[in-house]
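User: I'm new to structure prediction. If I give you an amino acid sequence, what do you actually give back? Let's try with this one:
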Amino acid sequence: MKTNFQRTAEWLTACGRPADPGSPIKTSVQIGCQIEEIVEFFSCLRLEKEGYAKMLDRVQEDLTWLGMKLKRGEMIAYIPHHLRVDALDALCDIEVTGNGIAHMSGFNKDMADLRVLDSNDAKLVDGKPVLLDGGKITKPPGWKAPDLTDCV
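Assistant: Good question. You get back a string of structure tokens that encode the predicted 3D arrangement of the chain. For your 152 residues, that looks like this:
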């Protein structure tokens, strides 16, 4: 069975986004996508202590702004060569801690991962992405988001 990383790499390659360490623009767009998902997770959090909800809102606003700038190519983020090992370590830690949150919350993350990856594959038509003007990958007619209700 292929790992989540392998399936994601194959999907991105099919979408015209193969690995290209020399192209910070494509990596920057993917960083924007990562930020967008972090904001989506933050929007599901609630803080017990009074007065901190506004802080979380501000963080989400700032990250949303940054993510959109990166995804639109209006700003470029890159990983300097001397920080590539540290960046890879952080990405691995993000995956491990995310899996830890899913475990502690009692989520069936393995099943959810498979459904999300299958859902991404369903965005390809005849092995190719459906693109909007400007190159954004979109969902083809009839596409449905994965149902994760039985994974929680």
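You can read the tokens as a compact description of the fold. Here is one thing that stands out. The longest strand covers residues 128-131.
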